[in-house]
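=== RUN LOG ===
request id: a7f3
mode: sequence -> structure
chains: 1
length: 152
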Amino acid sequence: MTGSQTDSRLRRLAARSVSTLKQDGTFWTLLRFAIIGGVNGTVYAATYLAVSNVFGLQPFLASASGYLAGLMAGFLLHRNFTFLASGRVHMEFFRYLVAQAVILGVLSIVAQIGARSLHWPTWVVIASGILLAPPMTFVLLRFWVFRKSASV
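=== RESULT ===
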């Protein structure tokens, strides 16, 4: 198979995938998720830099502070804009907090190991959080926190 045949097949596969995503609404959900994610990523980075540089907090606490800064805004925006949820708010909020705690734990451990053991520069610690958080968050929010079934 030539390179041009492979490129052509990849383009057709990508076009079919995007078409499928558009048909079931996933494409638009992902687009809305990305917009809100950009807002939360900016809040995370700005808060991390402020509390680590201005107040001298350790990477673990700086990462936790950045994550918590976007917590409420993220819940409201994802519930009402990204996933258009209509379930019981108190149950969704509880599941959201549990999901965020799981993600916070993962990001905080990565920040601590990255900064202290691997001696990553601050920008790499921040970038790792920004790259790891979206896929974990999308899966948890779509399939657990704001799922369409009303039970649990």
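=== NOTES ===
The chain has a mean pLDDT of 87.
Helices lie at 3-23, 26-54, 59-69, 71-82, 89-117, 122-145.
=== END ===
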